[in-house]
């Protein structure tokens, strides 16, 4: 028996469509009772395992890691055209050590050191073209993989053409890179300027602590934008993506802090993997981050599902 090409596979037909949300058939998240929220979180956990979102997160993390080296090389080359390359590299190292878990920061520092040595010899036109091309290809591949994983989380089929998908993935990658640069500047510049101005005591502590709420809010906003425009479906209203964005941001921050504490205090990866311990730690952190993103998407999908009781 031939399947209707417009028919969704089994297990996806129960997912609420965006227009069902707009018609008011689903209770707004702000009106849900604590009991309904508990059931919602429980169903979200079930969907994470039934849809194998942790495996999808591993695929997203793999493509994202492929983009790290050429993206950092392109960033150092771009910064080196405006400021001293050594200063740019040191600034990126400080950023990585301040925001990434221990193992991830170590790998990022090593990559930046090698790239700084390469920059010291000068980037030729062919090298610049290769680096930028590799960064763009990796970013498009990672964004497309993320879109596919979000489709799985939302129970949607990809309906965009290959050309449109690649175009949207490229726009997403460029926009995400610009968003990250702006957020890092907003987070790090005040504390850096305060240090240079000789700020001490409570003022310095408050400036360093204030970056975490700003980072959390920025991640939540970025995730909400991703959930709204990434999957192959009509864009929902903001209230249907903001809750998953906030949940994913908190899950990402908590998992990153917990993983950083584990790596820094146990040294388990170095004992087991030796010189590859830092690389494995970076891979695990990337997987945890991708999992937090997809779990937030699964929560949004459950929020849009019509009530069954």
From TrEMBL:
It is found in: Cell membrane. It is a multi-pass membrane protein. Pfam families: Virul_fac_BrkB. Residues 1-30 are annotated as: Disordered. InterPro entries: Virul_fac_BrkB. Keywords: Cell membrane, Membrane, Transmembrane, Transmembrane helix. The chain crosses the membrane at residues 60-83, 128-153, 165-189, 209-228, 240-263, 275-299. Its main location: membrane. GO terms for cellular component: plasma membrane. PANTHER family: INNER MEMBRANE PROTEIN YHJD, UPF0761 MEMBRANE PROTEIN YIHY. This is YihY/virulence factor BrkB family protein. It comes from Muricoccus nepalensis.
């Amino acid at each position: 028996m031939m399947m209707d090409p417009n028919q969704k596979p089994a297990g996806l037909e129960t997912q609420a469509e965006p227009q069902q949300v707009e018609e008011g058939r689903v209770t707004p998240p702000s009106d849900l009772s604590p009991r309904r929220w508990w059931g919602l979180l429980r169903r979200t956990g079930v969907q994470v395992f039934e849809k194998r979102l942790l495996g999808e997160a591993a695929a997203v993390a793999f493509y994202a890691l492929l983009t790290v080296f050429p993206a950092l090389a392109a960033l150092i080359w771009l910064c080196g055209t405006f400021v001293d390359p050594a200063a740019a590299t040191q600034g990126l190292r400080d950023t990585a050590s301040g925001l990434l878990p221990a193992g991830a920061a170590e790998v990022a520092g090593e990559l930046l050191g090698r790239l700084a040595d390469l920059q010291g010899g000068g980037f030729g036109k062919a090298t610049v073209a290769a680096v930028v091309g590799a960064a763009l290809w990796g970013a498009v591949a990672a964004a497309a993989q993320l879109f596919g994983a979000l489709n799985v989380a939302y129970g949607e089929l990809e309906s965009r053409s290959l050309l449109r998908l690649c175009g949207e993935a490229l726009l997403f990658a460029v926009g995400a890179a610009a968003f990250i640069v702006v957020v890092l500047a907003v987070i790090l510049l005040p504390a850096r300027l305060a240090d240079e101005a000789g700020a001490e005591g409570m003022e310095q502590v408050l400036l360093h602590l204030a970056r975490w709420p700003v980072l959390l809010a920025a991640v939540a906003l970025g995730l909400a934008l991703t959930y709204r425009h990434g999957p192959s479906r009509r864009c929902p209203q903001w209230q249907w993506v903001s809750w998953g964005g906030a949940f994913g941001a908190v899950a990402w921050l908590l998992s990153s802090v917990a993983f950083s504490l584990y790596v820094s205090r146990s040294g388990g990866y170095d004992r087991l993997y030796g010189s590859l311990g830092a690389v494995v730690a970076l891979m695990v952190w990337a997987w945890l981050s991708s999992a937090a993103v997809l779990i937030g998407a699964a929560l949004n999908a459950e929020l849009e599902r019509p009530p069954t009781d």
